[in-house]
Design a protein that fits this description.
The chain crosses the membrane at residues 6-25, 37-56. It is a multi-pass membrane protein. The protein is globular. Helix 3 (32-51) packs antiparallel against helix 5 and helix 3 runs antiparallel to helix 8 (134-143). The two termini are 22 Å apart. It has helices at 2-21, 23-30, 32-51, 53-56, 59-87, 93-114, 126-131, 134-143, 151-156, 161-172, 178-192, 199-204, 209-224. It has 13 helices and no strands. The protein folds into two domains: 1-147, MFS general substrate transporter like domains (Growth Hormone, Chain: A), CATH 1.20.1250.20; 195-229. By secondary structure, the protein is mostly helical.
Amino acid sequence: LLFLWSITVSIFGIGGLLGSSGSRYLTVKFGKKKCLLCNNVLMIVAASIMGCSKISQSFEMILIGRFMCGLSAGLCVPLHHQYVGEISPRKLRGFANSTSSFFWSLGKAIGQISGQRELLGSQSLWPMLMASCGVPALVQLVTLPFFPESPPYLLMHKGDQEGCKKAIRQLWGEGQHQAEIDDIMKEKATMKNTKILSVLELVKDPAFRWQLYMIVILTATIQLCGINAV
């Protein structure tokens, strides 16, 4: 029983690893907006499966739902940061990206509070707690269609300059946005001469060795700081 529940908890991370690994391919092929929309559907399905697990008397549904939830979260982390950063005007881009970390922390805090036995963590209400992750996904699924695709994606990957200009006007209003378009064109020219490293190539490259050491140590110490025990 302990082994089964340990797998149920940890399979979220396995799904997250797979989701984040495939995010680059999916964003280049389908675009960030479409990926986010499909990702919301995946999260809603995962929430529904976990929410119905008690009625169905199936712990396997919790296992499957946790894996799908992790897959969705792994896709969402890079997608959300990229999309928010790319649709924000230059002067607000740093602020917009910093709000992501704030809302991640706020979501964790709300989840911890909601999981108390006095609220949704009781014996009768825990399926609602597990299904609650579908609520923000549903909100984004309803509102995201009113937003355009990322302007850099339209210009750099689709070559759609008119679509890029239309998206910029919809996001930032009417005005002169040629400077932003020129910046995207410069980035596109730079990317042509830049080799995208695989994970294995990144690990082998001596130029990034110390940065990797720092990231690994930082990530490991976060896991050892006691937050999981709390």
